[in-house]
Fold:
Amino acid sequence: MGAPAADASAPAPAAGPKAPKTALEKDMDKISKANRTLQRQVSDATKNDASLALLATIHDAAMAASNETPQMAADQPDADRAAYVADYQAKMKEFIAAVDKVTADLQAGDNATAAVDAKKLPADEKTDHKKFRKPEPN
Structure:
């Protein structure tokens, strides 16, 4: 005896309308996409030009994102909001410095160090997203 068949007449659950992405979300998507590709190829010296282009994309998107305000800032008490945004901006500057370190590693032809330094980028992202990014609704 198998599982009961799904009722074909039952309507599919309706997905609510998705809010348009903010500029910050778009910049973070650029960073994430470029970083995923970078992680796969950073240790390959034959792909240094492509890796440097990815790092430039990450750097530019991070610079733009650092000038934006995370949505969770609105959830902070008025007295804490400015400090929250300043903390976000400081973390973005740290991230940009880490990206610049990977860039310098590659420009020096040190792919082994670049690979180690590049692995730190997603770890920083995970930690910082917990503090600055609204959780996705289920």
In short: Residues 91 and 128 are 8 Å apart (CA to CA). The radius of gyration is 20 Å. Helices lie at 23-41, 48-66, 78-107, 111-132. Residues 27-132 form a domain with the Four Helix Bundle (Hemerythrin (Met), subunit A) fold (CATH 1.20.120.10).
